[in-house]
Design a protein that fits this description.
Its main location: secreted. By secondary structure, the chain is an alpha+beta fold. Helices cover 15% and strands 31% of the residues. The strands form 2 sheets. It has a 5-stranded antiparallel sheet with strand order 1-2-5-8-3, covered by helices on one side.
Length: 130
Amino acid sequence: MAIKLFLTVGLVFLAAGTAAERLEEEGSSMADEQGEKSKDVPGGWTRWFDRDDPLPTADYEALCELRIENPGKICDRPSGIQARVKGKNTPASETREYFVKFSPHEGLVCMDAHQLDRRCEDYEVRFWCP
């Protein structure tokens, strides 16, 4: 079974087989930053999560930590992630920052040391639960 990765503006989807085509077709409407159709589990987008402010070294929006802090609010196997700068709604992909992690299985991690200005933005993330 082939795994496909779809990356659109601030949005990552992992899918296999025919589900990939369905996600690709829906991706453009789901990627709308302003169209906040948030849902809790099951199915659809979760609410936005921001677990910390950028520490002196990084911004950690790691899925494992988000699950601990928000039990039952994120499905077991999210297939998409969306990230934006908190308070500005700027998609993460438009910030030109490098992310150590940015996937629906791990969440988002931005390290200050990897940025040209040595500082990560404060991000919030949400997950797509099939």
